[in-house]
Write a structure and sequence with these properties.
689 residues; two-stranded antiparallel ribbon; 11 strands; 7% strand; elongated; SLC26A/SulP_dom; glycoprotein; Sulfate transporter
Length: 689
Amino acid sequence: FLMERKTHVKIKRKEVMLAKLRKSCSCTPQKLKNFFMDFFPVLRWLPKYRCKEYIWGDVMSGLVIGIILVPQAIAYSLLAGLKPIYSLYTSFFANIIYFLMGTSRHVSVGIFSLISLMVGQVVDRELLLAGFDLNDDASPALADGSVQNDNLPNTTAFNLTIAGINAECGKECYAIGIATALTFMAGVYQVLMGIFRLGFVSMYLSESVLDGFATGASLTILTAQVKYLIGIKIPRSQGHGMLVITWINIFRNISQANLCDVITSAICIVVLVTAKELGDRYKHKLKFPLPTELVVIVVATLVSHYGKLNEVYASSVSGAIPTGFIPPKVPEFNLMLRVALDALPLAIVSFVFTVSLSEMFAKKYAYTIRANQEMFAVGFCNIIPSFFHSFATSAALAKTLVKTSTGCQTQISGVISAMVVLLVLLFLAPLFYSLQKCVLACIIIVSLRGALRKFRDVPARYHVNKVDTLVWVVTMSASALVSTEIGLLVGIVFSMLCIIVRTQRPRTALLGQIQDTSFYEDDLEYENLSTVPRIKIFRFEAPLYYANRNYFLKSLYRLTNLDPNLEAARRKKYEKKEKQHLKKGNHRTPNGLGIGETTLQLVPKQIDFQALVVDCSSISFLDTTGVNTLKEILKDYKNLNISVLLACCNPSVIDSLKRGGYFGKDSGCMQEMLFYSIHNAVLFAKDQK
């Protein structure tokens, strides 16, 4: 039977587009109100805030995250190649802006190790190109953020035009100028992606690519911190292969290790790891996580200050951290042009991590987020703070997990965290002057435990899916051994190539009938299937398009043990020889057969079927090449008196076949060539003479 298709009303796209444009361009008071309510979601949920129910959990989670943020912000400044004060600015502004614009109730937006690393790599490259020395012993910072110029290599003057005035800029000033320009451009990209609704870009970053990227970047972060752990002074490597070059430099200079830093690092790592493991084991008994990082920083700062570790043992310390806020400044346009390309992967990674975490926790706690608004939120978390000497931000999984475990209900907790950071900014920052850099490096390395544990999951991942494991390994290796940006690009391209290859060489099979049923399955995969006499049933498990056309034909010919083109050529050759013998008056063929026996010879013994059923249930679409391929096999098999029947085609495939003229003029033969189940096609083939 042939099912009757519904007639769809043709949509006039031009009129629809114009109507949408008129609607979006119209301005009414209600529409203006809705726009502001959508752009600032806080206006919707804050008036409905249940103070008695939510306030305790929000305050507790906000305080805990604020306490964690301070040491992490100071530590991650090493990754970004910037002073700790800028990390504190970043943490403060990001929490405030996301509170106003974010749609997730739980994610913690702020400084993130992976983003800090990507910023640091761009900052280091530009500092090197500008002629600055990349060693970390910078001169002290003044309260206004400028740098004292004592004719040291780190304070090489660089002429920078700011608001039309030619100003001299030292290393620290130029570094934060690069970081803010990069951050501003990343934010602009994110806002533009939100305006043009390009959130679908995140779909091309699979879980394997993201995990591999994060793990490879973690290895790079770990490598960059080793020199602080052991207190050696080596140049910060730049360019491709940074990980290998850094390790070579570490082993070359291992004899210069500072014993004080080595002992301090060993003690801090043991304390931090032990506390983390105990916290993970007894987290169900703890009301909130132990502030181990803060305790370690406070104790280490006191020991360093009163033990004079910097003066006596030459241990590297954080140095002066000014209090208050540096006056805002517009990011330099000329620097934006230099880092415009670097900002693109930064924008994509920042957005993808934020949206994926937002969706994960929204699903867990049964509410919805708006991905497009999240893109605006994280975009403005980069644009606005870039005027206040801050750098790029993103949502962070570890801090978000802590927020949810300590009772977070809304983004009020983010405001509380920002107040804790503000307290440090205004009053407590100078107290961290004597904090050793090796302690900060320990905090960073221990925070990488989650990403580095992915190596333990490789066997399980391989067992689940070998291709995804290969994507993970390639992305991780490229991110670690080449560079983070190249690693991300390699991961995306390689994962797409894997999909293309899998559609180019998909599974193919001949089907057999499940006994006493009307169902058919792969003859090589299941036992006790019965073959259908004189009928071959072929399944192709992929779309049929130009890239896999040849594989489709080769598989079909191999499994059916018949190439119709070769058989047709062999028959023509035989007929030609037969005609030549008949013309000579020889009534016997070259094989010694009589003319009456010729018909038997023309039908080869290997053709043991009269109908070919193609199971199209796994063919999701056909392109022009795919339609022409099916028309080709229809014609070739018809020349051998073998009928070709299609089964289980979806509507789009049927439409493609109709447009391609597969069913003839006006699709008159359609009911004899197309069937809605394999069994119907088999019954039809059996009834044929």
